[in-house]
C-alpha cells in the first residue's frame, strides 16, 4: 500500500510570509526564546525547533516564519552570528526540502554488509589469499 503525502499551502493575495532557518542552536533554547528574539524585528507567525523522533531531544536547529519578507530579512541581518544562550547561531532564508533523502538502508551502494563472498565475515572488504 502506497501513501502519498501532499502538503498544500494556501497563500492570500499579497501574502509574503517568509520561512527562516535557524541553526547551531543550544539545546537549551526554547521556541519561546526564538519567538522573543525574532519578535524584535516584526510579527512571528510560527516557530518550531526540530527534535529527534526517538529521544525527543532537540537537534540543534529550527524554523521561524515571519509575516512579511522585509521583517524576515531584517531579522536575518540582525540575528545571523548573534550569540543566543552561549552559542553563535546561523540564520538564513530556509530552502525548500528536496525529496532525494536516503534512508541509509542495508542495500545502499557502499558495499560491505553481512556475509556474502568468500570472506564470510561481516565486512565486504578484500578477500585474503594464502
Please outline what is shown here.
This protein has two helices and six strands, in the order βαββαβββ. With 130 residues, the chain is α+β, with helices and mostly antiparallel strands. The strands form two sheets. A four-stranded antiparallel β-sheet has the order 2-3-1-6, with helices on one face.
Summarize the helices and strands and which ones pair or pack.
Blueprint: E1 18-23, H1 31-39, E2 44-51, E3 58-66, H2 69-79, E4 83-84, E5 87-88, E6 90-93
Antiparallel strand pairs: 1-3, 1-6, 2-3, 4-5
Record keyword descriptors for this entry:
two-stranded antiparallel ribbon; single chain; four-stranded antiparallel sheet; 2 helices; Alpha-Beta Plaits; 6 strands; alpha+beta; 130 residues; elongated
**End-to-end CA span:** 50 Å
- Neighbour order of strands in the largest sheet: 2-3-1-6
The average pLDDT is: 81
Rg, rounded, reads: 22 Å
Which residues form runs of ≥5 with pLDDT under 50? 3-14
Q: Mind telling me the CATH class of the domain at 18-93?
A: Alpha Beta
Helical segment count: 2
CATH architecture of the domain at 18-93: 2-Layer Sandwich
Structural class: alpha+beta
Order of helices and strands: EHEEHEEE
Please name the CATH topology of the domain at 18-93. Alpha-Beta Plaits
Give a short account of the largest sheet.
4 strands, antiparallel
**Superfamily (CATH H level) name of the domain at 18-93:** RRM (RNA recognition motif) domain
Shape: elongated
Helix content: 10-25%
Strand content: 15-25%
Number of DSSP-assigned strands: 6
Amino acid at each position: 500500500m502506497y501513501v502519498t503525502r501532499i502538503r498544500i499551502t494556501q497563500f492570500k493575495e499579497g501574502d509574503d510570509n517568509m520561512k527562516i532557518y535557524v541553526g547551531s542552536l543550544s539545546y537549551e533554547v526554547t521556541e519561546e526564546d526564538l519567538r522573543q528574539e525574532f519578535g524584535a524585528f516584526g510579527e512571528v507567525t510560527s516557530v518550531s525547533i526540530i527534535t529527534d523522533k526517538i529521544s525527543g531531544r532537540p537537534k540543534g536547529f529550527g524554523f521561524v516564519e515571519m509575516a512579511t519578507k522585509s521583517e524576515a530579512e531584517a531579522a536575518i541581518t540582525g540575528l545571523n552570528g548573534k550569540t543566543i544562550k552561549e552559542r553563535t547561531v546561523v540564520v538564513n532564508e530556509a530552502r525548500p526540502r528536496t525529496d532525494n533523502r536516503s534512508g541509509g538502508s542495508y542495500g545502499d551502494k557502499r558495499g560491505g554488509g553481512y556475509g556474502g563472498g568468500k570472506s564470510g565475515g561481516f565486512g565486504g572488504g578484500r578477500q585474503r589469499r594464502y
